[in-house]
């Protein structure tokens, strides 16, 4: 599931920062960028929007005044360089208040507060749909169903519309998306560490900075949006 968001911000550098951070979140889709709130009204009235990143200091109408015009506003995260507006903003039930300049970690913390049907950031894993005592799976590879021992899977990598399953001695190309494996493998063992990787934690030799090392020749990146949750779960 995806969360559709827009940016209402008149400063190009601030627009670029938000666009970059949104692109890091695989469950977020940027639907539009607007330099003033009036230009965004028609879009909001005609399109489904789950979240607005709203600057307070805008031309024509301020972010606060724009908020007052919304009958049933979506989730709102205010952005501004002026901290004195923080208290007033919470009168309008905004999700969070980002004081510029803000880090990616602070951005992730803000979007994690959003209450929609979608999940924006990695949270406590759901109960696995696959029985934890199951020892093998059948994977579709071309026209064949190949039996693979689950404990032999080292990691899974997204490859465009496919995924590659790496075992101790072989690689399997499958038509399933990465989310399929995230939902169907035991989440206590197979953890999402990056928008393109799931790793079998039992195969990790060590964690170094923003990488997990499986052996001397194999290291996988840890995405910034996944790192905090991943470290917390593996160190429980």
In a few lines, what is going on in this structure?
With 236 residues, the chain is an alpha/beta fold.
What does this entry look like structurally?
The chain is α/β, with parallel strands linked by helices and 236 residues long. It has 2 domains: 3-111, 3-Layer(aba) Sandwich (Rossmann fold); 136-234, OB fold (Dihydrolipoamide Acetyltransferase, E2P), CATH 2.40.50.1020. Helices cover 25% and strands 33% of the residues. The chain contains 7 helices and 15 strands. The chain has helices at residues 12-24, 37-46, 63-69, 86-89, 104-111, 178-184, 224-234; strands at residues 3-8, 28-34, 51-55, 75-80, 96-99, 136-141, 144-149, 153-159, 162-167, 171-174, 190-194, 197-200, 206-208, 211-215, 218-221. The strands form 4 sheets. Strands 2-1-3-4-5 form a 5-stranded parallel beta sheet. Strands 10-9-8-12-11 form a 5-stranded antiparallel beta sheet. A 3-stranded antiparallel beta sheet has the order 13-14-15, with no helix packed on it. Strand 4, helix 4 (86-89) and strand 5 (96-99) form a beta-alpha-beta unit. The longest helix is centred in the first third of the chain and has 13 residues, at 12-24. It is elongated and about 65 Å long. The two termini are 28 Å apart.
List the helices and strands and how they pair.
Blueprint: E1 3-8, H1 12-24, E2 28-34, H2 37-46, E3 51-55, H3 63-69, E4 75-80, H4 86-89, E5 96-99, H5 104-111, E6 136-141, E7 144-149, E8 153-159, E9 162-167, E10 171-174, H6 178-184, E11 190-194, E12 197-200, E13 206-208, E14 211-215, E15 218-221, H7 224-234
Parallel strand pairs: 1-2, 1-3, 3-4, 4-5
Antiparallel strand pairs: 6-7, 8-9, 8-12, 9-10, 11-12, 13-14, 14-15
């Amino acid at each position: 599931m995806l969360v559709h968001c827009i940016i209402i911000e008149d400063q190009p550098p601030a627009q670029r920062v938000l666009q970059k951070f949104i692109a890091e979140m695989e469950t977020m889709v940027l639907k539009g960028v607007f330099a003033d709130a009036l230009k965004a009204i028609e879009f909001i009235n005609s399109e489904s929007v789950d979240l607005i990143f709203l600057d307070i200091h805008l031309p024509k109408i301020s972010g606060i005044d724009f908020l007052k015009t919304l009958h049933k506003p979506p989730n709102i995260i205010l952005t501004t360089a002026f901290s004195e507006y923080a208290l007033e903003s919470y009168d309008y039930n905004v999700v969070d208040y980002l004081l510029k300049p803000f880090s990616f970690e602070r951005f992730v913390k803000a979007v994690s507060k959003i209450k929609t049907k979608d999940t924006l950031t990695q949270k406590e894993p759901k109960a696995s749909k696959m029985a934890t005592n199951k020892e093998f799976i059948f994977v579709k590879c071309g026209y064949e169903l190949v039996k693979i021992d689950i404990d032999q899977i080292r990691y899974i990598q997204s490859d465009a519309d496919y995924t590659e399953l790496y075992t101790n001695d072989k690689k399997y190309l499958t038509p399933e998306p990465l989310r399929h494996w995230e939902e169907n493998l035991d989440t206590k063992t197979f953890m999402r560490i990056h928008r393109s990787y799931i790793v079998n934690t039992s195969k990790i030799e060590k964690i170094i900075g923003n990488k997990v090392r499986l052996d001397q020749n194999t290291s996988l990146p840890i995405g910034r949006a996944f790192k905090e949750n991943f470290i917390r779960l593996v160190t429980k």
